[in-house]
Every structure is written in structure tokens, then in C-alpha cells.
Amino acid sequence: MLNNPLLVGIDFGTTNIKAIVFDPTGRVLAGASAPTPTYxxxxxxxxxxxxxxxKNTTTxxxxxxxKVDRDRIVSIGVTSVGESAVPxxxxxxxxxxxxxxxDGRTEPQGRWLAExxxxxxxxxxxxxxxxxxxxxxxxxxxxEHEPDAFARMRxxxxxxxxxxxRLSGVAATDYSLASRTLMLDLHQLRWNTELLDDLGMRTDFxxxxxxxxxxxxxxxxxxxxxxxxxxTTVIAVGGHDHVCGALAIGVTQSGTMLNxxxxxxxxxxxxxxxxADPQVGVQGYSQGAHVAxxxxxxxxxxxxxxCVDWFRNAIxxxxxxxxxxxxxxQVPAGSLGVTFLPHLRLANAPYVDPKSRGAFVGxxxxxxxxxxxxxxxxxxxxEARNSLTxxxxxxxxxxxxxxxxxxxxxxxxLQMQIRVDFVPxxxxxxxx
Length: 432
What we know:
Elements: E1 6-12, E2 16-22, E3 28-35, E4 38-39, E5 47-48, H1 50-65, E6 73-80, E7 85-88, E8 98-99, H2 107-116, H3 119-126, H4 135-145, H5 147-152, E9 155-158, H6 159-168, E10 173-174, H7 175-178, E11 184-185, E12 190-191, H8 193-198, E13 209-210, E14 215-218, H9 221-227, E15 234-236, E16 239-240, H10 241-249, E17 256-261, E18 265-271, H11 278-282, E19 286-289, E20 295-301, H12 305-314, H13 321-329, E21 339-341, E22 359-361, H14 369-395, E23 402-406, H15 413-422
Parallel strand pairs: 1-6, 6-15, 6-16, 10-13, 17-23
Antiparallel strand pairs: 1-2, 2-3, 4-5, 5-8, 7-9, 11-12, 14-15, 17-18, 18-20, 19-20, 21-22
Helix pairs in contact: 2-4, 13-14, 14-15
């Protein structure tokens, strides 16, 4: 084995694509990020441009590999958001852009599935609530509205899988990303071909299912030339970002929780077996396969960090975050009675309501920008608590031993203190 090997991680996020080089102890040696190329052609619609995704990824890899001894790089893995995928044709060209995970155009497909398949059946097989964001709805939309593109689709690759495919030339996905599709039989860890047969949908475009970390082989020579990776670099199967984060931080045992804080937010609890109570699905909690083995259930928020970004751009006058935080810190807890509902895209568990939207309530002439911004931070924190409390009952826990928080939000002291103040007490007060 190579002495002093290096590993590379890529994360495709809603807001940014990031690349990091680290050693086997987890010490970061180089890092870079670039905006995720996202387009909003009309209200409620959003998509990622696959070619720009690849271009930004190669640029990041060239940057980070130039900062280290690249010959020491032995392997690379990719994580990403769930639900979004790139449909490729026989020539490996996208037949349609990657519909963003939060895109709202697929609400009619969700209603159709509820009527013709049923939410309970889908929950029993996939462990997921019937919400429009999941990948099956995107496939149904593509079949209905872009039939020529759907017919030309050879393979459907989730964002992490697409980047790994461009690097290795091998198509595959892992169980954690497949868990975000409605098409995985969670109990048997296989594609639910019976469901797809009932939908009159072919199955040949679904990639092979492999455990996260499985080798896909060495980097392709053309990709090595584009990225600066040595030809000996092994490309590994990646996974869903929140789930990989849970493995990295050690959230694998009952009583521990991951709070993954990004554009969206996950409140993540590990499970030995999937929960069978249909109320879990009715309340919008999602389940899947843990990359550490076993399963998970999580709630959270679709627009957590996104609420902060929205406020800064739409109301905050583009002020820098330090200024906004300083203003909010001067406001007493409770935000002078102003409450913010953080449903900028749709409601969060324990409610399934695609029509719910954000709101400020309790405005008065005393309200300033700082008051509104503190209300946003408090609203996000209260929504997290509102999602966590019923989830603890579902998994049979009265409290938690440890909460681990990861993501860029953890660098914000005010926001984290508000969360600590609003979260239910951990049993042994080891939350961090």
C-alpha cells in the first residue's frame, strides 16, 4: 500500500459543489468550492445543468490536486443531494437537464400516484411518504411531458453517480441514494420492479445497486487529464450527503442524532429496522438504508439555510451575514412577538402539505430588520424542534444522548445558541 495515501471527496450540494483532499485520519489538506449551476426557468421550477456540473467539478479537482502531491491520491468518492438525476442516452449525453430535488413541477404526478398506487403501498415498500420531490415523480413527469427524451434515456444517474460515472465510466448507485426514489424495496434492498411494471415503466435505465464504498475501478484516462487525478485513482460508489455525514460523525447507534445543517436540513436517527407504522409516512418522515448498515429515519426542513439566504437577498438589502447576525443578537428572544414560518417550498414533517408557504406573523411598527432576521433564525429552530419531537416518539425514545451538528451553519454562534435553547433536552446533556 502507498505510504501516506490521500483521499478525495466531492460533495454536490444544493448551493455549492465542494472538493476536499484529506488524509486517512480526516485531516484536510486542500479544499475548494464552486456554485452549483442551477436555473429557474419559471416559478416553482429548477434544474441543474449536467455539463456545467461536470465542468465545475473538473475545475475544483484541478485546483485541489494542484495543492498536494497528486501521486499520493488513491481514491475518490462523491456524495450528493438526493432525488435529482441525470438521464443519459446511448452516447452518454443528457437527454434532459437534471430536475432539481426541490422542483415543484411534479406535484400532479404525486397526486396521480396517490390515486392510482396509494400512499400506504408506497410507504410499505419504500419507507417514504408520498411527496412530489422523490425521483419516481420526476420520471413520470419526463415520460408525460418529454416522451422523446424519456424514450432515448439509457440510464438514470443520481448526481453523485453521474460525477462518478464521468470519472470511471461505470454506472451504479448506492442504497442511500436509491432510498430517495420511491422505487427501492427497502426491506429487500432491490429495485421494486413490480411497482414499475404496474406503472407501465421499463426498468432497464435503473443503475445497478451497490454498497457505498464499492470500487468502480480506476479513473478514465480522459477524466484524469481533465481533473489532475493520477491514473491509479480508484473511483468509489458514493451516497446521499446526509447519510454519509452520519457515518462520518459516528451517528450509527440509537440515542444519537445527526443535525445536518445546509440549504436543507436533516434530523437523522439511526434504526435497526424500518418503522412499519403508516403514521410515520402520513407525517412526512422518510426512511432509507444507512451507509453504515441498518437503516435510518429523518425529518428536518426543506428550506433551512435557504431561508437565511432568501432573507438576505429579498429583505436584508444584501447586507453581509455578520451585520445581520449582529443586528439579530441585539433583539431579545421572542423577536418582539414576530413569528416566521419557514415553509418557502413546502411544509416539513410532521406535516405533509405541498401548498404551505412561508409567512411572518405579528408584525408591528416596532419591527426592524434585526427583529425579522432573528424571527427567521427562531422560526427555523422551532421548526426543527417541531420535527424532532414526534420523531422521538416514533422510534421509542424519550430523549437523546448526543446530538451532532454538521454543516456550514455550525459556524454561526447565534444560530446555534438559539437551536440549543429550543431543542428538547438531551438525557445526559451531551449535545454538541
